[in-house]
Description:
The structure holds two protein chains of two kinds. Chain A has helices at 9-19, 30-35, 40-70, 77-83, 94-130, 138-158, 188-217, 230-261, 285-319, 326-339, 355-383, 392-414, 417-423, 427-457, 463-489, 509-539, 598-602, and strands at 272-273, 276-277. By secondary structure, chain A is mainly α. In chain A, strands 1-2 form a two-stranded antiparallel sheet. The radius of gyration of chain A is 24 Å and the shape is globular. By secondary structure, chain B is an alpha+beta fold. Chain B starts with a helix and ends with a helix. The longest helix of chain B is centred in the first third of the chain and has 34 residues, at 83-116. In chain B, the strands form two sheets. In chain B, strands 3-2-1-5-8 form a five-stranded mixed β-sheet, with no helix packed on it. In chain B, strands 4-10-9-6-7 form a five-stranded mixed β-sheet. Among the domains of chain B are: 1-39; 169-192 and 276-392 and 411-416, Cupredoxins -  blue copper proteins (Immunoglobulin-like, Sandwich), CATH 2.60.40.420; 195-272. The interface between A and B is large, with 133 and 127 residues. The complex binds protoporphyrin IX containing FE and copper (II) ion (2 copies). One copper (II) ion binds next to helix 9 of chain A.
Amino acid sequence: xxxxxxxxxxxxxxxxxxxxxxxxxxxxxFITKYVFSQDHKMxxxxxxxxxxxxxxxxxxLSLFFRLQLAWxxxxxxxxxxxxxxxxxxxLLDPNFYLSLVTMHGTLMVFFVLTAGLTGTYANLLIPLQLxxxxxxxPFMNMLSYWFFFVSSVLMIVSLFIESGxxxxxxxxxxxxxxxxxxxxxxxxxxxxxxxxMALFIISSxxxxxxxxxxxxxCRTKGMKMTRMPLTVWTFMTAAILGILSFPVLLAAALLLxxxxxxxxxxxxxxxxxxxxxxxxxxxxxxxxxxxxWFLGHPEVYIVLLPALGIxxxxxxxxxxxxxxxxxxxxxxxxxxxxxSFIVWGHHMFVTGMDPFIGSIFTFTTLLIAIPSAIKAFxxxxxLWRGNIIFSPGMLFAIGIVSLFISGGLTGIxxxxxxxxxxxxxxxxxxxxxxxxxxxxSLFGIIAGVYHWFPxxxxxxxxxxxxxxxxxxxxxxxxGVFWPMHYLGLAGVPRRYYSNTAFPMFDHLQDLNVLITIFxxxxxxxxxxxxxxxxxxxxxxxxxxQNPWKGTTxxxxxxxxxxxxNWPGDIPEVHRWPYDFSLPGEEEDFIxxxxxxxxHEKANEHH
Amino acid sequence: xxxxxxLFVLVSALTLVTVVxxxxxxxxxxxxxGRKPYEITEGENNINALMCLFMLFFGYAIYxxxxxxxxxxxxxxxxxxxxxxEEIDTLQxxxxxxxxxxxxxxxxxxxxxxFRYRYRKxxxxxxxxHNNRLEMVWTIIPALVFCSLIFYGLKIWNDIFSTEIEGExxxxxxxxxxxxxxxxxxxxxxxxGDVNYTMVSDKNxxxxxxxxxxxxxxxxxxxxxxxxLAALAAFPTPEELPELEKQRDRLNHQLKMVSGFKKxxxxxxxxxxxxxxxxxxxxxxxxxxxxxxxxxxxSQDVIHSAYLPHFRVHMYCVPGLATSFTFVPTITSxxxxxxxxxxxxxxxxYCNNICGSAHxxxxxxIVVETxxxxxxxxxxxxxxxxxxxxxxxxxxxxxxxADSAKTDSAAVPAAAPKKVAKLx
Lengths: 606, 424
Ligand code: HEM
Ligand SMILES: [Cu+2]
Ligand SMILES: [Cu+2]
C-alpha cells in the first residue's frame, strides 16, 4: 500500500497518478477517494474536519457576544471588521447579538457536537471495533456526509445575508421565529435555518440507520453484544435516540414552515403585531416547545453519550484496568436513553403547562440522575489502583468526568420544578448545560482526536502541545462557566444584549469581564490544538500499529488505511474488550482477538 | 491601528515558525536518544499527575472563592419577598448543601486517584472489573437522596400551584408586548373585563372589549380597509401586491371578529371592562403587602416571560394561552430598601424569554406597599371607561406619582367607581 493519505491533498493526487498502474485492486480517483468517498474512515475524517471548521466559526460568534457582555457600549474594531454593518463603529447591533447567540448555539449543538461526535467516531469506530469491513450501506453513509455538508454550507451562508441569520434562539420558539415583523432574523435567515436543519436531520437519519444496522447485523465472529466496547454501545444508543427523536423536530420544522409561509396556524394564535391582527387563531406556541424538546432533551444525550463512551474506552485503556462495572455501564446507558424520552417537560415548567404534568417531569428528571451517578462512580473506581498514563486523550477523558460531575449536580437544582421557577432561563442554565453537555461533549471530540489520531491519519500528535492544550482549556472551561452560576443565582437572564438596563446587576459586571478573559485565553489554547492537528497530519511522527496498547480490534488493522480495513481475514473475537492487567499475565493487556487460554476457559466471567 | 495589525501578523507568524522548528528539533533529539517521539516519559507523566493534584485544590478554590465572595456576602438575590418564595429558598439551600457536599467529596477523589495511581514502572494495575455490592451502594444512596429531594420539591410545587391561598385575592393582569409591560386591575367589580387581540388599537392598547371600543374599532378598521382596497384597485406593482393582499385578508378577518362582538350584543358582559384600571407601559404596578396577588399573563405578539426574581415568580406570557401565577408579597418596597440599605432598590418584573431586539430592557417597576397606601393609590387611578372617553390614549396617560398625588387627588376623581355604576 502506498501511503497517499499521509500527503497533502494535491500531492496525493499526483502520487496517485504516478502509481496508477501498480494498483489494480481499487482504482480510485481523487474524487472518489477524498470527496465522494464511501469508505467509513474517510467519511469520519470528513465529518471531523467539517465539525472543526464549524467549531471555529461557532467559537468566533461567542467571542463577539462575549466582548459585548463584558464591555457593553465599548467599540471593538475586531467586531466591525468581521461583522460589518452589524457592528457599525464596533458597536454590536442588539438584533445581531441575538443572531450570534442563536447561530452559536445551533452550530455548537448540531454541527459541532452531533456531527463531530457521532459523524466522526461512530463512523470510524463501529466498523473498526466490531470487525466489519464497512458500514452496511456505504452509499447511504456517503450521502449522510453530503447532506450534512450542504446543510453546513446553508447555515454559513445564512450568516451573510442582508436581513441577518436566524435570531430566535437555537430553540427557535414561535411566534418569534415565525414572524419577520417581530425580528429581522425571522425572515430569510430563519428560512435558511429551517431548510438547513431539515437537511441536517436527513443526514443524521441516514447516518443513524446505518450505525444501528451495522451494529446489529455485522459484528465479526465472537463479537457478542456483551463483548462490544462501551464506545459502540453509546454510538448505537445515541443513533437510536436520534432516529426516534429527530423526525419529531423535522415535523415541528415543517409545521413551522407552513405557519411561516402558508398561513396555517399550528403554533400561532391571537397575535397583534406591527399594527395588524393576524388571521391565525387556535394554534399553540407551547405545542412547538413540546415538539422541540421531545428532540431537544434526547439531543443532549445524543451528544453526551458518545463522549462518555469515548471516556470509558480511553480511561480504561490508559489506566490499564478494565472499565469498572461494564454491565452497570451498559445498563446505565440504556436507562439514560429510555428516560431521556420522558423528561423533556423540564424545559417547560413555567410555560403554563399543567402543574401536575410538571410534577411527573420532575420525577422522571431526577430519576435520570441515578444512572448518571452510577456512571460517575464507575469512572472513578476505574482509576482506583490503576497504572495511569496521562496521554492528552486520557487527560481530556478525566476532564469529561470532572465536568460531568460538576454539571450534573446543578441539574438537580434545575430538574426540581419548584427550584426551576427562579433559575429558569438564567445564566445558571447556561452554566449547567455548558459544563455537562457543551464542554464535556466537546472534550469527547478532542479526547477522541488525540486517542484515535493514529488510526485516522497514521501519525501521532504532539503530546507536549496536547498537555498545554488540555490544562489551559480545562481551567478556562471552569473559568468561563463556573462564574455563570452566580450570575444566574443573582437573577441575570440569558439572551440579554447587556445587563446595564438593570442597576441591580451592576456589581456583577466584573464577573462578566472575568468570563470573557477566560474565553479569550481558552480560544488561544484551541489555536494550539488546531495547529497540532494539521501539523501532525502531515509532519507528525509515524504511528505504530497499537500506540496505546489497546485491546480493541481497531488496533489490529494496519496503520495504512485500506478498503475493507483488514488485509486478510477479519479477526475473530474471543473475549471482552477490557482484559487489562490480568493477574499472572506477562503483558498488561490481551487484545480481543487472542483466544482464551485454557485456564481462562474454566472461569470465564463475561 | 494598521501598525498593530502588521505587528500582530508578524508575531503570529514568528510564533508559528518557532513552534514548527521546535517540534522538528524535539523530534530529532528524541530520535538521537533512541526514544520514540510520541513516547510519554515518566517525567511528563509525573508533571501531569501533579497537575491533577493541583486540580483537587483548584476545585476547592473556585468553590470557596465564589462562595465567600458572592453567596455569604449576599451579593446574589436577597431573601425571598414572597410567601412561597421562602419555601423555595429553603429547598434551594437544602439542595445546594447536598450538591455542594457531593461536589466537594467526589471531585477530589477523582483528582486524587488520578494523581495517586499515576504510572509507575514496576507497578501493575489491579484487575478489578466489578463489585455488585459496591455498585448497589452507590445506586441506592443517590436514589434515596434524589427521592427525598423529589418529594420535598413536589410538595412545594403543589403548594405553589395547587393550593388555594387564604385571604382576599387581588386579580390583575400583566400584559406583555414588544418591549413593554402594561398591567390591568379588575376594578370595583373585582372582575377583569373581556379582551380580544383584534380590539387592540393605539387608544386601546390592551384590546378591551366595551361597547365604546367596539364602535371605535369598527370605524378604524373600515377606514384602513377602504384604504387598502383603494390601493389594491389602483393597479399596485407586483412587489406591492402580496403585501396589500395580506393586509386586506387580515383586515377582513379583524372586521369579522369585531363585528361579531357587536352582533352578539351581550352588552352586560362587555360592561365589565369599564371599571378596569389600566397601567400603561411606563407606569408602575402597585400591590399591597400580605395579600394574595393573582397575576394573569397575556401577550400581544410573541412569547415573553414575566420574571419577578425577588418574589420567586416566573411565568411565560404566551399569545393565545392564559397563564397565571399567584403569590403573596411579604416585604414592602420600603422595607426592602432598608433591608438592603439601598435607597435605589426597586422590585422589577423583567422579560425572561427571548422576544426581540430590546428583550434585554423590557421591565416594569413594582411597588409593594401597605394596604392603606395601596388603596389610596388605587383610588387615584382612572378607570378604563373614563380614560377611553377622555380620548386620552391609554398608552400615554402617565399615572400620577404616588406621593405627589396626595395634593391634587381631586384632579382625578376618587369617585370613579360611582361613574361606572351610572353607566350600568
Ligand atoms: C467556546 C466557548 C463557549 C463560550 C464562551 C460560550 C458562551 C455562551 C454564552 C455566554 C451563551 C449564552 C448567551 C446568552 O444567553 O445571552 C451561550 C449560549 C449557548 N451555547 Fe455556548 N459557549 C461556548 C461553547 C459552547 C459549546 C461547546 C456548546 C455546545 C453545546 C455551546 C452551546 C450553546 C447553546 C446551545 C447556547 C444557547 C443558545 C441560545 O440561547 O439560543 N456553547 N454560549
Ligand atoms: Cu432536558
Ligand atoms: Cu419580552
